[in-house]
Amino acid sequence: MAGPALRLLPPDAGDRGSQRCRLGPRALAALGLKLGSPVRICLPGGAALCAAWPRRDRAEGFLQLDTKCVSPWLVGRPCQGLSLGLGHLQPLSCVKLRRVRVRAVLETGAWGLGGESKGLTGELLKELLRGVYLCPGFVVELAAWPGLRLLEVTAVEPELEPGSTGFLGTRTRLEVVEVLRPEQFQSQGRDLRLGGLEQAASPLRELLSLPLRFPKALGRLGLPCPRGVLLLGPPGVGKTALLRALAHELEAPILEVSPAAIQGSRPGESEQKLRRLFEKAQGQAGPCLLFIDDMDSLFPRRAAAGNRPEDRLVAQLLTLMDNLDPWTQMLVVAASSRPEALEPALRRPGRFDREITINVPTMLQRQSILQAITSAMPLRADVYLSWLAEATSGYVGADLTALCREATLQLVRRSSKEPLDNKINFADFHEALRIVQPSCLRSSIGLTDFRPVQWDQIGGLDQVKLKLKQSIEWPVMYPEAFVRMGVTPIRGILLYGPPGCAKTTVVKAAASSCRCSFLSVSGADLFSPFVGDSEKALAQVFHQARAAAPSILFLDEIDSMLGSRSLDGTVDHSVKERVLSVLLNEMDGIGHSLAKGRDPERKILLPEGEQLEQSKMLEFQEVRNKDVIVVAATNRPDLLDDALLRPGRFDQIIFVPIPDAEARLSILRICTSKTPLDDVLLEELAAQTTGFTGADIQNLCKEAALLALQEDGFDAAAVKHGHFLKSLQNLKPSLTGQQLDFYHNLFSTVTRR
To answer: How many other C-beta atoms lie within 10 A of the C-beta of residue 605?
Structure first.
């Protein structure tokens, strides 16, 4: 029932605080309303509960509204100049309430609502609410008592059926369950509780509110309302939750449909279900949202032959979208995590006009999400959400929810042994981090989990450690310094040197120290017997690394993955050369977001100081979260293509040498830190192990311990110096002098800073 348009006017001076809405006689008769009957009025951003009343001048086409009892989002917002239809007005039935629970919003320094005055206060509030229609979730604005601003209805008894409201009687019991300050109410009552989604919520709210707020204004301008919106983003980022929250905020009905509800077993059944769904949405009174989830599984790219059932369903959707009335108040919203699989014809203007991308949350967004999730959780003071936000790179909203759930389960398990412990501590979250991994890396190519390594567990290599800290740690831990100095973070690092010199270990230590996501890929993970699969796998690896940024992509034994293009003009279309081409293109694209979307960046007008501060924070956050650093390790850098070694791809080429005497002593101390020793001269052993790599020294310590068990039996108490000397006689350095000369000569000609 659309009916004639009603222009919203401010209430009369005598109607302020009366909860009255004044209509013309014909509008009252069309709705079946009597004098004082309750009515619900749907407004942009919420709804209002009012008592129907005739206009004094009996004029039609106008609506005067007093917002005494409204949705939380409408508190303090003027409702004037809008144009509503009769479909926005819903007559309600009325019941007498037995019990009402409210939250009171008091000005700072106002009188209390507890202690001995609790009963008296309840009677006063009952008197203030007498004759007011109430509904759970609505807020009543009060001006009759100094200091008392708002009362939010949290629950009523009996529970109200849809299409009904309640009022207080003489025996109604009123309870004040909580007292809030105005700033607390603004942060709790009007928050969507969707931390980190504010950037995507703003354009989506604007699109959803157009058919409701300006249904005729766009028509007068000659512009039709948008027909479709496409939400894009990885699984679990909150596409569906965001739409549901905004639909609830705008009081707009939403029809949700999944692929299983549309797909039919018989030819033509799916198309028939889709047509009925559009008819049902268009038959709604007022604006309506039609939400299609997992759109890529229903409407994929059409095949060349065009005879698949999915192709017919795509054609049906195109026809339905094109046949929509330009002034319709129905909006089609679809969500997809694979936009490249969608039919391109759907993504043109006139069908899905706007595409809104929700990316993997950044560090500040993760902190906002964690604050929203843990707002009702009992946390100890040692739980720092900022640290958790840094440690959860690559986690989406669903992953963070699972993380908090697992931390709660840790508390439940511990409470069975320690009944007095009823708060979640940092150890619970630390254990949950070990169990819950980011979903974007669960099905990834390569290895994502590794045993954390600390810098002090690596002996020697001080210069290599410093260069890695400058290249990996500093851009992540100190982004403001990089922005201030105008330094661009390094894109790639190549570690080369003899085997067994801890190239892989130092990369793991760098990933552990800066709490980045770590993705390790070898040639066995990439190569496939099928043409094109290796190149596709490498592109997918980079896609996953960008989704989990900041991250470290480690290409171990890179010389076995890539080929070097010949300089003599011969053509060799090998798999390695095609993989090299993909790697060159992907490294040139590092630093770009996973999906920017088509919306231009929105700028919010703020005071000059706040705008400058927000600009700096966003710039630091961008440096902090866009880092995908490619680290490669090889024993044969001479086999790599020259185009890969230029600055801009592998900016740093670092030689990892064999340990010197001081480094060998440090390695011996680390390897024997857990071994009981008896008069072992580590300095002498360090001098006698010239040419040994770190792996050789570790093997020496292991052989000495096994020799002690062999000679002294399994009751041996310690390893003696003689055991090391005997083991040293049977072990030789794994590297020859010729190999060392090769690396030193290569170092002098290839390495650069």
So the answer is: 5
Q: Is residue 443 in some structural domain?
A: no
Helices and strands per DSSP (H, E), number in the chain = 27, 24
638 & 665 share domain: no
Instruction: Looking at the structure, tell me whether residues 79 and 102 fall in a common domain.
Output: no
Q: Find where tokens 């029809």 sit.
A: 255
Nearest to 210 by CA among 368, 333, 59: 333
Q: Could you tell me which residues come within 8 angstroms of residue 735 by beta carbon, excluding any fewer than 6 positions away?
A: 498, 499, 658, 691, 693
Residue 744 in domain: no
Average pLDDT over residues 528-554: 80
701-749 residue pLDDT tens: 888 888 888 887 888 888 888 888 888 888 888 887 787 778 777 755 4
Burial class (CB in 10 A: 0-12, 13-18, 19+), 719: buried
Residues 412 and 515 occupy one common structural domain: no
| C-alpha distances out from residue 445 to 440, 524, 586, Å | 11, 10, 16
- Residue 362's φ and ψ, nearest 5 degrees, are -80, -175
Q: How many CB atoms lie within 10 A of CB 646?
A: 11
Please list the residues that pair with 254 across neighbouring strands: 289
The CATH number of the domain holding residue 717 is: 1.10.8.60
Shared domain check, 52 and 24: yes
Whole-number mean pLDDT of the chain?
Answer: 78
C-alpha–C-alpha distance, residues 219 and 261, integer Å = 34
What is the rounded distance in angstroms from the CA atom of residue 732 to the CA atom of residue 560?
A: 27
Cis peptide bond N-terminal to 158, omega within 30:
yes
Range(s) of the domain holding residue 348? 198-357
CATH of the domain at 149: 3.10.330.10
Question: Which DSSP state fits 382?
Answer: T
Burial of 183 (0-12, 13-18, 19+ CB in 10 A): exposed
- Are residues 252 and 289 in contact, defined by beta-carbon separation less than 8 angstroms? yes
Rounded CA gap, 273 and 292, in Å?
Answer: 13
Q: Which residues contact 638 (CB under 8 A, 6 or more apart)?
A: 746
Domain edge (last residue) among 56, 91, 126 = 91
pLDDT of 599 strictly over 50: no
Q: What are phi and psi of 275, to 5 degrees?
A: -65, -40
With 0-12 / 13-18 / 19 or more C-beta atoms within 10 angstroms meaning exposed / middle / buried, residue 151 is buried
How many domains would you assign to the chain? Answer: 6
Residue 187's contacts (CB-CB under 8 Å, 6 or more residues apart) are none
Instruction: Give the contacts of 318 (CB within 8 A, at least 6 positions apart).
Output: 345, 346, 351
SS3 content of the chain, % helix, strand, coil (to 5): 45, 20, 40
Both tokens of residue 469? 């800290």
Identify whether residues 542 and 423 lie together within a single domain. Answer: no
Q: Identify whether 202 is part of a domain.
A: yes
Our CA angle for 632, 638, 639, nearest 5°, is: 75
Instruction: Report the percent of the chain where pLDDT is more than 90.
Output: 1
Instruction: Please indicate, yes or no, whether residues 479 and 617 belong to a single structural domain of this protein.
Output: yes
pLDDT tens digits for 611-668? 444 445 545 554 555 568 888 988 888 888 888 888 888 888 888 888 888 888 888 8
Looking at the fold, whether 629 and 718 belong to one and the same domain comes out as no
From 67, 91, 115, the end of a domain falls on 91
Distance CA(442)–CA(437), nearest Å, equals 7
CA distance 696 to 507: 20
Same domain? For 309 and 424 the reply is: no
Cα–Cα distance, 34 to 93 (Å, whole number): 12
CATH number, domain of 561, equals 3.40.50.300
Give this prediction's pTM. 0.62
445 occurs within a structural domain:
no
Do residues 204 and 133 make contact, with C-beta atoms less than 8 angstroms apart?
Answer: no
